[in-house]
Amino acid sequence: MTDIALGRALRLKTSLLDQSSRTRKRNFAEKRFELYGMAAVAFGLLALVVLLTTILGNGLSSFRQTFVTLQIELPQAKLDKSGTGDLEAIKKVSTFGYAPLIDTALEQTMAQLGITIDGLSAKQAAGIISKEAPAKLRDAVIANPALIGTVHEFRLLANGRIDGYYKGAVTMVSATRDANVSPELLILADALKAAGLLATSLNPGFITDSDASDQRPEAAGLGVAILGSLYMMMIVLVLALPIGVAASIYLEEFAPKNRWTDVIEVNISNLAAVPSIVFGILGLAIFINFAGLPQSAPIVGGLVLTLMTLPTIIIATRASLKSVPPSIRDAALGVGASKMQAVFHHVLPLAAPGILTGTIIGLAQALGETAPLLLIGMVAFVKEFPGAPPEGFFDPASALPVQIFNWTQRADPAFVERASGAIIVLLVFLIAMNTVAVLLRRRFERRW
Amino acid sequence: MPFVKLSVSAIALAAVSATAAVARDQVQVAGSSTVLPYATIVAEAFGENFDFPTPVIESGGSSAGLKKFCEGTGENTIDIANSSRPIRENEIKACASAGVTDIIEVRFGYDGIVFASDINGNSFAFTPEDWYRALAAEVVVDGALQTNTVTSWDQVNPELPAQPIAAFIPGTKHGTREVFEEQVIFAGCENSGALQAMQDAGIDEDTAEGKCMAIRTDGVSVDIDGDYTETLARIDSNKNGIGVFGLSFYENNTDKLQVATMGGVTPSTETVSSGEYPVSRPLFFYIKKAHIGVIPGLKEYAEFFVADEIAGPDGPLAEYGLVSDPELSDTQTMIADEQVISPAG
Domains in chain A, ordered, with CATH? Predict the structure, then answer.
């Protein structure tokens, strides 16, 4: 048989209903590729689910905290020896003078309720209350000196380990080995809970209070960090948006296309890919060492993040300006508008949704940034709230990602829960910002 | 466009307030991550009890802190450097050349360095010799240096359990590493007679001392550049691991870690302060004298730090794991008199 005859014979055998081996192979390759794609997506989803479950599992409990309610006597003999009610004299009594009052109050409460626990001294029993409590008492007395000489009810934070007991982090078994808590203390906590004096409830302090030292994880909050992040985002928005939009409009609409603008364009794209720590080094050199701005201040953090966000905003803005069709400009120019009028009256409003989306994504990126803040002194223990802006921009503050970084380094295991809680707060902010970006795009974007 | 006007005026406002930057009213501190928890406890109590604002405390390591400290004087430089080792001669010189001449050195207590392993694993009773034999890069065998090949603790010392050697030691940027090398590895080298043996084998003293402190790099010993939480996580995933921790970190994690004895002594604040437990180091902070009287609250903070009710044996620092300094009253008078360290000779 000749080759042609062979080919004819083969062709006669094939049918559309009957797949040839080559077709089957191709179809199988396609199926396989689809499977690879699905596996990739599934892997991504699995990673997300694992991440979210660990964070939520560890962190959700940080929004609840255990409190102890105590009737505390504030004797005049100890708190205001002169008896004059002079605020300066009252301030002389330090928190070390207030701590014994809580010990006594707890002892009395135990006696009233008839709680006796073998092997637990009065001093050890006081370990059930947070070390933050004396400060709270002192603040209350200084704010209202009339409390001296009365018995007042205080709702105090329980120690972090006691709190951990009700959240499952501390057990009777682990308590026997733990130097900071004992099973007797947990029995006391259970007895107080039965008497209704100890309860776990929602803790707004986690959002509003400032950071606390290693000894009192239960009192640590995100207040200063949220405020610091907010101040920085304000600075970034106010600086990066106008500068970025102005630069893009010039480059896109006015600048001649020559070698210089090409060089600038390449540089902007490069800047967007520069590691963020480099901007931190730059910030330290220029804003702190040269310009003499204070360390750890949101103003410096904001300026550094502005530099970091600018390329993102410029690239997004240029893309959305480019997507406005030339016919709009031509029509405006055709009816006698100047170039500036054409840009500001017609092109810019049409590009605005894209610009805003780019800005919000840039801001969200800046919000989660820690590395550049490391070098300008914002990765620090900051307890004091910064003042109101604009002076507050120059006060020391922390930032949300920095606070997470700090808490993961603390020795006390209760900070693990706190760090996860802070991650949840940061994620909520990021999701909110990205949702706004998506909504803006959906609502206002025009397709041509 | 109102937004443009708004942002331009905001920038102008920021620029104006930048030129009239308000005088700094809080103390700024940077330095050792070992000192950080103590410093935050003091800063917190200071902010509660005084009208001064709470000091801002940065960490980042002793060397980084001292470098920042020596950048110069003025409001945008830090006031205090925390350090887990004494300041070095070249650092004093660097300080002096930047105009930081009068430095007050404050030793506020001691920190024990402990060896701990997983709570459910074997118990260990170490001597410095064991650590030297386990981790030295080269050991003397029959008068000649050979690469160290031991892989299990019972090969080092028959009394130790037969458990693979997996050590997590602080990385070289930590002040703790220096103490570990000098007080454990070098001491072990000397006590075991290896130093003498090397010199007998014709190696000169300096080289021999260097060989003593060289740690093997074949994966048996892992440098941890992060902090103690990382070491703890490593032990959690490798139950055979033995980590180097600060005493205070161990005391906050006694439910996960068991501590090894060193030379038969269990580490605790008592045994470290009595000097029975051999591995410990002093903790310091350094004050810029030029800033006293300029930055409000600086001297008060320093005095409060070393006050008996804070750094004394019953204070919150000791409760956290600090071994209090028996000569604390000398330190108190030193701060009151603002005694500076003598300039580099």
Answer: 61-203 (no CATH), 223-444 (1.10.3720.10)
- Residues 45-104 on B with a CB inside 8 Å of A are 45, 47-49, 51, 53-54, 56-60, 75-76, 78
Name chain B contacts of A179, Cβ cutoff 8 Å.
Answer: 251-252, 254
**Cβ–Cβ below 8 Å for B58 and A296:** yes
Q: Give Cα A308 distance to the centre of its chain.
A: 18
Asked whether the beta carbons of residue A381 and residue B21 sit closer than 8 angstroms, the reply is no
How many of the other CB atoms lie within 10 Å of CB of B294?
Answer: 14
- pLDDT tens for B306-339 read 999 899 888 889 888 898 888 888 999 988 888 8
Rounded to whole angstroms, the Cα distance separating A216 from A200 reads: 17
Return d(Cα B82, Cα B61) in angstroms, integer: 8
Q: What is the pLDDT of residue B20?
A: 44
Q: Which of B93, B107, B88 lies closest to B325, judged by CA? A: B107
Flag whether pLDDT at B298 surpasses 50. Answer: yes
* Contact state of B229 with A411 under an 8 Å Cβ cutoff: yes
What CA dihedral angle connects A206, A211, A214 and A218, to 10 degrees? Answer: -20
**SS3 assignment, position A380:** strand
Answer whether B138 touches A (CB < 8 Å). no
Domains of chain B: 23-110+281-337 (3.40.190.10), 112-280 (3.40.190.10)
Q: Are A281 and A324 spatial neighbours (Cβ–Cβ below 8 Å)?
A: no
Q: What phi and psi, each to the nearest 5 degrees, are found at residue B188?
A: -65, -40
Q: What's A129's DSSP letter?
A: B
Angle made by CA atoms B334, B339, B341, in degrees to the nearest 5 = 115
Closest CA to B168 of B254, B228, B218: B228
SS3 letters across A308-330: HHHHHHHHHHHHHHHCCCHHHHH
* B-interface mutation test, from A344, A381, A395, most B Cβ less than 10 A away: A381
CB B243 within 8 A of CB B115: yes
Q: Which of B13, B9, B24 is nearest to B291 (CA)?
A: B24
SS3 sequence, chain B? CHHHHHHHHHHHHHHHHHHCCCCCCCCEEEECCCCHHHHHHHHHHHHHHCCCCCCEEECCCHHHHHHHHCCCCCCCCCCEEEECCCCCHHHHHHHHHCCCCCEEEEEEEEEEEEEEEECCCCCCEECHHHHHHHHECEEEECCEEEECCCCEHHHHCCCCCCCECCEEEECCCCHHHHHHHHHHHHHHHHHCCHHHHHHHCCCCHHHHHHHHHCECCCCCEEEECCCHHHHHHHHHHCCCCEEEEEHHHHHCCCCCEEECEECCECCCHHHHHHCCCCCEEEEEEEEEHHHECCECCHHHHHHHHCCHHHHCCCCHHHHHCCEECCCHHHHHHHHHHCCCCCCCC
Kindly report, residue by residue over B137-190, the tens digit of the pLDDT. Answer: 888 887 778 888 888 998 888 889 989 999 999 887 777 888 888 889 999 988
State how far the Cα of B247 lies from the Cα of B272, in Å rounded to an integer: 10
Which residues does chain A have within 8 Å of residue B40's beta carbon, measured at their own beta carbons? 213-214, 381
Chain B residues inside the 8 Å CB shell of A394: 17-18, 21-22
Q: What is d(CA A13, CA B35) in angstroms, rounded to the nearest whole number?
A: 85
pLDDT tens for residues A266-309?
Answer: 999 998 888 989 998 998 899 988 888 888 899 999 999 999 99
Q: Mutating which of B7, B46, B49, B67 best tests the A interface, going by the most A Cβ atoms within 10 A?
A: B49
Amino acid letter for position A168: G
Give ipTM to 2 decimals: 0.84
Nearest to B45 among A95, A238, A411 (CB): A95
Mean pLDDT of A37-60: 94
